[in-house]
Amino acid sequence: MSAPQDSSGTSANIDALLQETRRFPPSSEFAAHANVRDEAVYQRAHDDPEGFWAEAANRLDWFKRWDTVLEWNAPWAKWFVGGQLNASYNCVDRHNATSRRNKAAIIWEGEPGDTRVLTYHDLYREVNNFAAVLLDLGIKKGDRVAFYMPMIPELAIGMLACARIGAPHTVIFGGFSAEALRDRINDSQAKLCVTADGGWRRGNIVPLKDTTDTAVADAPTIEHVLVIQRVGPDIRQVNMKEGRDVWYHEAVSRESRRLVDPEPVDSEHPLYIMYTSGTTGKPKGQLHTTGGYLTGVSLTHEWIFDLKEEDVYWCTADIGWVTGHSYIVYGPLANGASVVMYEGAPDYPDKDRFWALIEKYAITILYTAPTSIRTFMRWGDEYPAKHDLSSLRLMGTVGEPINPEAWMWYQEHIGGGGKCPIVDTWWQTETGMIMITPLPGIVATKPGSATRPFPGVEATVLDDGGNPVPNNTGGNLVIARPWPAMSRSIWGDPDRYVATYWSKYPGLYLTGDGARRDDDGYFWLLGRVDDVLNVSGHRIGTMEVESALVSHPAVAEAAVIGATDPVTGQAIVAFVTPRGGYTPNDALTAELKEHVVRGIGALARPKRIYYTMELPKTRSAKIMRRLLRDIAEGRVLGDTTTLLDPTIVSQIKEQYESSEG
Ligand code: WTA
User: Fold this and answer.
1) For residue range 26-65, what is the model confidence (pLDDT) as tens digits?
2) Domain 532-660, what architecture?
3) Assuming Cys at both sites, which of 290, 337, 585, 649 could form a disulfide with 332, CB separation 3.0 to 4.6 Å?
4) Is 427 in the pocket of ligand 1 (CB under 6 A)?
């Protein structure tokens, strides 16, 4: 890996961000009532991290207390060893046993406007019934269950039902293609796939069951497909394969409804697998376990979002990503929060849907992505202005660096002109929980900075030689100590876990992100320094898109890069060498884009495709993506002397520049 300054244009980011000097301390009103008011918490956690996390673990209900807080044989961590608990018990049963039983747990709104509110008691009943259905379908502790679902309450219910019986789930985002779904099911060896007859998106039906049918035709471990009826047969008929497919509403309406005791599992029992893109074509299944994960997400959720009993909390992510797992399902429900869940698109029926939801449910905490904020900015101030957003008291962002301009717009137009603190939270699928973030009652924010590591988290910035870089210099962001919610391994591939994260700096976790620290010790995230793109906050490996492209008969070779995009952060740009007999033209471009969508999903659709007879390669035949990035960013070309044929770059550059306008 090369240093971030010369690999992804981050030196330009550093310059821009260096000029950002605005500071926003919390109001005295907010600070006075914040959950965390004492700065000393940082020092305390730093001096005794294990004591700090052990205290945090006390917020959970354990069937059996742990013997050892941490067993650390780098890079293998075990947290709360000897302890036994159940995630579903912690998210549901224990609230059902208090006056929270009548509190709203999930406030759900479908895209067409239909609504459901589940109290903690409702959730308790539903999770038990779902768990009974799982058992009746032969799912046992340790079996994997895949979910390919719209954003409906049954997704959260189903995940909690899995946790109840100790069956790890793997949720695959509903925007992935059949091939992507199949690969993830096969990698996890799931026995059951839970899906729906459809979901609403921008007034259309996402045909999840049809896609599942294609995927599981090639997934030999799948015994059953459990289908939730979301849209109904008048809107969408689906095929039910005899013996394999089961309607959930039929399974649950028979004699099956019953209470299912939560299975006490070891603290390190797998809770879920979440696939994420890496630098090869094959996605990595991040394995998250129970006790440490739940401790981490529950504590961070309460402290960072300053959760109060009466809050109405809305995270706009899809549960198909880690953000939804940690901060829609496990963190908030472990904390007994009221969680808003919305099924559809932000511009349906109009571009003010989010603001209408905030007004309707008097939402107090909003957690969303910079790419959405930039989209709202583009749509215009009039949409939020139409609604009463005064219920909001805190807002968060996640998924990608937020540019100061978007940060300021968010504060001004959504946050009532500075009334709401903004928490810019940096973390990853691998980290499980938020790692760098303000604590909103203590830390003054700076637009564009995720500020400080959470108490107990030790982050640092190193150069390629492993030395700490001076302040205001970019380098590799590294986490120097184990933390409870960390991924424990890559499912089925521990060697890759070691190679990817723990071998550049042995014993230290390599994040793959570039960062710099300023003179106040604040962290400024500078984007990925590896071959992973961040498009609208979604991680996509360049290799995944390249393999999808070269699987098309017209493509001999492909190189994919991320070009800076004002709305999506990065946009996918592909350089393609066509095979003999194929003529590059608009029809081929359209076909190749669709081909990538079929292979991965719409989230990976290339924005632009360029054709070239040759890709720039080193003498050892390595594609020089860095030069392609320079071209796409309009930068002065870096060193081309190592190229096999230096004239190629200027040819590509000419073509790029002539087609751009
Ligand atoms: C990026 C999402 C800057 C980063 C939770 C990271 C961010 C990747 C931020 C993880 C942030 C996430 N500021 N960059 N606040 N949050 N990222 O696994 O590049 O989908 O490595 O997890 O998103 O994406 P993932």
Assistant:
1) 999 999 999 999 999 999 999 999 999 999 999 999 999 9
2) 2-Layer Sandwich (3.30)
3) 337
4) yes
